[in-house]
Write a structure and sequence with these properties.
- This protein is α+β, with helices and mostly antiparallel strands and 195 residues long.
- Helix content is 54%, strand content 12%.
- The chain has a 4-stranded mixed beta sheet.
Length: 195
């Protein structure tokens, strides 16, 4: 056994299962949002409006962001001592440095939300204030401030002053999720490492 191996083969299953926890939750939230948008579109096509719980819809959007931030740490660990593990997992999952999961503002928004909220509320907020919005981009002549919003026409999720492209992030999470499922089917091992 190579003592310098970032992840020992018998430990691969633990990384697979740990990452699956996050990707499974993200995929569930993606399904919820896709279904909701489809129902909204159907109602609009029929000339109606769909009644739904905006908070729950936004919880699912925020869940995707939080799960993406958690998965990101496996590939780009915060502490340098864990960098070899991150590099190894990037090779196994073919994750490039240009991946939407690497966006530092994504991780900061998830990990330091309390501080961002303090700073956001410390400034003077004037204009239209929307605590929650799930729908097409809201148009207003006055400055508009969102606590949380999901714009279904652009696929962007907004938390305070941060906006995230949910589609690119979701595509990468689904790709990694499918690889993780394949690794589970392969006996909880990464490809090419089975005994």
């Amino acid at each position: 056994m190579d003592a310098h191996l970032p992840i020992w083969p018998q430990h691969e299953v633990f990384y697979i299962e740990s990452m699956l926890f996050h990707t499974r939750k993200a995929c569930s939230s993606m399904d919820y949002i896709a279904d909701l948008i489809e129902r909204i579109d159907r109602h609009q096509a029929d000339g109606g409006t769909l009644a739904f719980d905006c908070s729950i819809a936004l919880d699912h959007g925020q869940s995707i962001v939080l799960c993406a931030a958690a998965v990101s740490r496996y590939f780009w660990p915060v502490r340098k001592a864990h960098a070899p593990r991150g590099a190894y997992l990037k090779r196994v999952f073919k994750v490039e440095d240009g991946s939407p999961l690497r966006d530092r503002s994504l991780r900061d928004a998830a990990e330091h939300f309390d501080e961002r909220l303090d700073n956001h509320l410390a400034g003077s907020i004037v204009g239209v204030i929307l605590p929650e919005w799930f729908g097409p981009t809201h148009r207003s002549d006055a400055p508009t401030h969102y606590f949380r919003a999901y714009f279904i026409d652009s696929g962007k999720f907004r938390i305070l002053d941060d906006e995230f492209e949910i589609q690119a992030m979701s595509d990468e999470l689904v790709r990694i999720h499918n690889q993780l499922l394949s690794h589970v089917d392969g006996g909880g091992r990464f490809p090419g490492t089975s005994a």
